[in-house]
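Team,

Forwarding the record for the chain on the shared tracking sheet. I've put the sequence and predicted structure together so nobody has to dig through attachments.
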Amino acid sequence: MDAVLSLKYHCKPIARDCEEIAVFQIALGWIALAARDESLVRLVFGYRNARAARDGLAAATKGPSVAATSRSPNGSWTESLHDRLEAFAEGQADDFADVRVWSEHWTPFQRRVLDCCRRIPYGQTRSYAELAVAAGSPGAARAVGRTMATNPIPLIIPCHRVVGSGGDLCGFSAVGGLDAKRRLLALERRAAVP
């Protein structure tokens, strides 16, 4: 296993409400995440190297770049999540339903939409309109699209599983855009086939 780059401290300038930053590589590229109390605050993925991932996290959280130090957090929460994300990137189904997310700054609408998105089964998709209905806001497909575009925790909250009404792939704000979305959906389809 690659070493997990981690910096543990109160990182208010990096990501509001976070205590830990972890940066690591999986088959989907480099990931950077910010966590607090074993809850994810922010996650970015698909970067070509650790520095780009750290810079991507800083940009996503509107904070300055971070210089993480290398350490191996044996038995830590982020190491466990790293292992799970690595297995997911290799095609192992994981709904990440038990992973806690820090949702204190979300609006009630965002919370409903993102919670419903988390319940989309591995290997399946839902349209923006279907997600709006599931969240109790029929007719709010565009607002659902905005919420998906600003999803702070992709992969854990699988916004890549949300598609246009005809199954069309519409926007994906992660690095790689629609190509990354296609890759994730293809990965899940392959793994879901018995």
